[in-house]
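re the bet — no i am not wrong, look at it urself. input seq straight from the record:
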Amino acid sequence: MLQAPAARSYVSTEKKVALLKAIQERKQILFGKFSDEIDNKKKVAAWNDILLVAKSLEIVSEQREWAYVRDTIWGQWRSRALVRQMTAS
């Protein structure tokens, strides 16, 4: 018996671009190496800022935490982009 594919939530291109711009603005802190200037508190604070943007764009629900945006939203978008990049070349 075939099962129907799981329903995917759709995020509009405009919302995705807005969230990605917010991530890009903070990329030095989010993805930079730990140093005297960048510590875990700054990284968590930056991901919390990204979470607020995601919530305001209604990409994630109010119950989600910053780790969900980092691990799931960003992780999936990044993986899919890498796959598209690899298959395009």
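see?? The helical segments are 13-25, 27-31, 40-56, 66-88. told u. also The two ends are 37 Å apart (CA to CA). so pay up
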